[in-house]
Write a structure and sequence with these properties.
The radius of gyration is 24 Å and the shape is elongated. The chain has 3 helices and no strands.
Length: 108
């Protein structure tokens, strides 16, 4: 989390506590991931919750941006095929005229 958005630091005595029941095997997965990231399990869980909350705030923007970039790539591929055909390098192929669209439900 960027420093400008960091949460106030509380001692473990004054920090909010919440008991979570984890599905079988999840504790071990979190422990392995936390170890790989050189964090405590608590720090790993907090980091992942924070990331999830940030993605909820900005997630739609990411999906819309991906959809826009995908559409632009498709347009550029079509333009390139037309330029090549006009230069005599290749004939336009029907498949390139109507490229398949990626389905990104939230962006449409």
């Amino acid at each position: 989390m960027p420093k400008s958005q960091s949460l106030p630091v509380k001692s473990s005595r004054t920090a909010d506590k919440f008991v979570v029941r984890l599905p079988d095997g999840m504790r071990e997965q979190i422990a392995d991931i936390a170890k790989g990231n050189h964090r405590s399990m608590n720090s790993e869980i907090i980091a992942r919750l924070d990331l999830s909350i940030e993605q909820d705030k900005h997630g739609d923007l990411t999906v819309r941006t991906l959809a826009q970039v995908t559409r632009r790539c498709e347009e550029l591929e079509q333009e390139l095929a037309q330029i090549r055909a006009a230069q005599g390098n290749e004939t336009p192929k029907a498949g390139l005229q109507q490229l398949p669209r990626l389905s990104i439900a939230s962006a449409q």
